[in-house]
Amino acid sequence: MTEQKPVTQSAATAVKALPDAQTVTQVQHWTDRLFSFRVTRPQTLRFRSGEFVMIGLMGDNGKPLLRAYSIASPSWDDELEFYSIKVQDGPLTSKLQHIQEGDQIILRPKPVGTLVHDALLPGKRIWFFATGTGIAPFASLIRDPETYENYDEVILTHTCRDVAELEYGRRLVESVKNDEMLRELIGDGLDKLRYYPTTTREESPKMGRITELLKDGTVFRDLGIEGMSPETDRAMVCGSLAFNHDLKDILEGFGLREGANSDPKEYVVEKAFVG
Ligand SMILES: Cc1cc2nc3c(=O)[nH]c(=O)nc-3n(C[C@H](O)[C@H](O)[C@H](O)COP(=O)(O)OP(=O)(O)OC[C@H]3O[C@@H](n4cnc5c(N)ncnc54)[C@H](O)[C@@H]3O)c2cc1C
Ligand SMILES: NC(=O)c1ccc[n+]([C@@H]2O[C@H](COP(=O)([O-])OP(=O)(O)OC[C@H]3O[C@@H](n4cnc5c(N)ncnc54)[C@H](OP(=O)(O)O)[C@@H]3O)[C@@H](O)[C@H]2O)c1
Questions:
Q1: CA 228, CA 119: separation in Å to the nearest integer?
Q2: Which of 57, 140, 179, 225 is the most exposed, having the fewest neighbouring CB atoms within 10 Å of its CB?
Q3: Could you tell me where the DSSP H helices lie in the chain?
Q4: Model confidence over 222-247: pLDDT tens digits?
Q5: 158 lines ligand 2 (CB under 6 A)
Q6: What distance in angstroms lies between residue 160's CA and the mean position of ligand 2's atoms?
Q7: Tens digits of residue pLDDT in 41-83
Q8: Record's superkingdom (predicted)?
Q9: Pocket residues: Cβ below 6 A from ligand 1
Q10: What's the predicted TM-score (pTM) here?
């Protein structure tokens, strides 16, 4: 008979030890301030592309330390993807930035949010306006077939300080255009999905805040579009409080009205972070 070994904590029991634990399957660092990661998906989790959940780690005090995170993967994906900031003195991300494949995070399986198709009335063209990590909900939505079924044209704008901060979005758009299933929906010309990246502090092909480029008509000239109208255009906005505020003014100026899950209209807004 073999000698009984002392019981060590296996990965499985460690998963059970954490409430709502999911296992990290992949981590990618994009800059010293940005990273993305994928985790296992709870079998029972259903969500609408664009929604967010609470995720986190166990705090030093033994209590879960949770923050809101947009799910960056589409609702059909087997796993969940997140795109995260690294705040060096941030209670959560000072630790979360060090996660590795095989580690566990806490994920509360209660998705909510306003950046969902249900919160908008039917239209012809949808604009996704993002700054920084605000691209996360749109990373989900531009991989969702429903987006292309609902609209003739999908425009993703992403404004960051530096070129390196655009890379996650650039690769994402490239992957969508190379995806067999989505290609069929986007069409052979691949121009149903239009990508409009801009930087504000580092030289790039298109410089400037998207708000300024909308106000002076540059965006419309560049894309060959006359402007926005409540009859045809729908918009989703995700960035800092100041960005959301400024963009709301612009959209209202075009006659678009803010909608909600319970009251769909022409545009919806969500904060990419608080503060
Ligand atoms: C609805 C919603 C969805 C969110 N989705 C995401 C997401 O998908 N990815 C993500 O990285 N964060 C997201 N956040 C922000 C997230 O909840 C945390 O604030 C972030 O993870 C930092 O946590 P922390 O504990 O390290 O620092 P916190 O104490 O939460 O934040 C410290 C400071 O860091 C800055 N900050 C926080 N988050 C960001 C950010 N994302 N970009 C730039 N500056 C920031 C702010 O100035 C904030 O006051 C979301 C927030 C909300 C309200
Ligand atoms: N990104 C970095 O390298 C960096 C480094 C250290 C600390 N931080 C801190 O981290 C926090 C978040 O930084 P972040 O870069 O992720 O987000 P951010 O400050 O919201 O900026 C992201 C992008 O949105 C633009 N923007 C900001 N407000 C806008 C508005 N009202 N209208 C239109 N565009 C607007 C910015 O342009 P502008 O450049 O014109 O503002 C920038 O291109 C800030 O408190 C910042 O001080 C950032």
A1: 18
A2: 179
A3: 11-17, 93-96, 136-141, 145-150, 167-178, 180-186, 210-215, 218-223, 241-253
A4: 999 999 999 999 999 999 999 999 99
A5: no
A6: 7
A7: 998 999 999 999 999 999 989 899 999 999 999 999 999 999 9
A8: Bacteria
A9: 52, 67-70, 82-85, 87, 90-94, 132-133, 136, 270-275
A10: 0.94
